[in-house]
């Protein structure tokens, strides 16, 4: 047994049986991606093993593991929202059919050359986006505008709306999912 596993307050050999399903269900509701949720749970178990010597027993094992998982989820969203992370994020506009596919964001097709067409297209696009944002649930629209359009810091939004950072990122994810659906119906399919 390694030193990091010698904490008598923990039973890492039972974590998978006791907590894997719970942690997975927790993660999947926050990242909406099965493979990513599994990876985050695995990373949580590894981080738990590495920091087992720091566990003081002030909470249950499950609560402690959830706290680790929350940090892993926040780190994931921070990464994909950083400039480097954004370049690695794949943009999927169509999930099925003959248009199925995705692009790495930095290699997405560029706009047209004609300036007049660009201006008209830009105004129509802005109008469609605004309409789609207006159709979001009120809290989603507020959080999305504050974070994405107005550029507020996560901490400021959380304080203003009395929500946690993980809740903020769940709201942002859900807002983006609904916006994508709205844009597909009102912009890409026209």
TrEMBL record:
This is RNA polymerase sigma factor RpoE. Residues 16-79 form the RNA polymerase sigma-70 region domain. Belongs to the sigma-70 factor family. ECF subfamily. GO terms for molecular function: DNA binding; sigma factor activity. Gene3D superfamilies: 1.10.1740.10, Winged helix-like DNA-binding domain superfamily/Winged helix DNA-binding domain (1.10.10.10). It comes from Polaribacter pacificus. One of its GO terms (biological process) is DNA-templated transcription initiation. Keywords: DNA-binding, Sigma factor, Transcription, Transcription regulation. Residues 129-179 form the RNA polymerase sigma factor 70 region 4 type domain. PANTHER family: RNA POLYMERASE ECF-TYPE SIGMA FACTO (PTHR43133), RNA POLYMERASE SIGMA FACTOR HI_1459-RELATED (PTHR43133:SF8). Coiled coil: none annotated. The keyword DNA-binding applies.
């Amino acid at each position: 047994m390694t030193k990091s596993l010698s904490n008598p307050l923990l039973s890492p050999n039972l974590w998978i049986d006791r907590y894997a399903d719970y942690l997975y269900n927790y993660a999947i509701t926050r990242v909406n991606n099965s493979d990513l949720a599994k990876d985050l749970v695995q990373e949580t178990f590894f981080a738990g093993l590495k920091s087992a010597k720091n566990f003081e027993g002030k909470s249950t094992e499950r609560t402690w593991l959830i706290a680790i998982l929350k940090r892993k989820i926040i780190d994931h969203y921070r990464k994909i929202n950083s400039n480097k992370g954004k370049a690695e994020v794949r943009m999927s506009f169509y999930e099925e059919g003959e248009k199925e596919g995705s692009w790495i964001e930095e290699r997405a097709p560029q706009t047209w050359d004609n300036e007049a067409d660009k201006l008209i297209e830009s105004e129509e696009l802005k109008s469609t986006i605004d309409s789609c944002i207006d159709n979001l649930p009120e809290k989603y629209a507020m959080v999305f505008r504050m974070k994405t359009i107005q550029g507020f810091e996560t901490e400021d939004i959380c304080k203003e709306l009395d929500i946690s950072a993980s809740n903020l990122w769940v709201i942002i994810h859900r807002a983006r999912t609904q916006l994508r659906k709205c844009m597909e119906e009102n912009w890409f399919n026209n």
